[in-house]
Amino acid sequence: xxxxxxxxxxxxxxxxxxxxxxxxxxxxxxGACVKESDLDCDRRGLAKLLAELSxxxxxxxxxxxxxxxxxFGGGIPPWISGMAQATAIQAFARAWELLGDDAYLRExxxxxxxxxxxxxxGVRTKGPFGGVHYLQYSYAPSLYIxxxxxxxxxxxxxxxxITGNRAARRLFDRAEPEVIKELPANDLGxxxxxxxxxxxxxxxxxxxxREFAASMCSRLRRDVYCDAARDFRSYMTDPAELELLGxxxxxxxEPATVRFxxxxxxxxxxxxxxxxxxxxxxxxxFRRGTGSFAWTPRAAGVHRVxxxxxxxxxxxxxxxxxxxxxxxxxxx
Length: 332
What we know:
five-stranded mixed β-sheet; alpha+beta; about 325 residues; 8 helices; 14 strands; three-stranded antiparallel β-sheet; elongated
């Protein structure tokens, strides 16, 4: 009772202290004091939360960190997260700026060592392009999660900007060339991947990558981040670009292939009518690229074609349409 700490429930693990969520809460509380917010500014509450978080810190490899004490994704506790560590130093730096307590500076400086030490003690590893990468999970040195890497860099950058700490800026500078290469490698052209050469992001993680790319854009004004933020948003808001590639003419009774190009994962419906009567109606799912339907015309004459695509990832009703005609000639 009276604690500010946030616990989360994990199936099979019970209620667990979640460092990342707690430091995100600290950042939200800070934001309520320095910008327009629906939350009330609660300086005493923020100080209490950070004091409790300080009391939960561990010493690991001569640096201060906030360990996770439950199994997750195959990792055996205790393990640490570069994303949580960076959000922690970001939160302490912001609190120092707001509340003026130098203890927050000492706390955050002591946490920088996590980005110097290699995994599994720290979160530093070699990235897929040979540069420095900061891990989401200290126990998974080959899992390159792009959203976590970007937030680690944002935390280091903000900390260095607020405090003037050169060591933090060097840690940022050493890893930024790697994220500049990894970010485009996680772009599928119509969506993002969760990790390098991994599966597609969920809608929530895709939005998170977009948000972090936009944050990097606002801080650094580099095209790689600004272009990615713009493209990732368009993947969520724009309907698929759909083009009928042909054919313009077919032969009655002979199998034909109706081809099209598509800019993003969609359910595509091909409807063909003749004299107002539907003679073909089929729907299938296609990924970005070219696709086709097989159709055998049963009569000669002009057929009206309607191609429709509904984007599948965002849950929004994003549809696009193409109307055309195909001329079916009599068999020779």
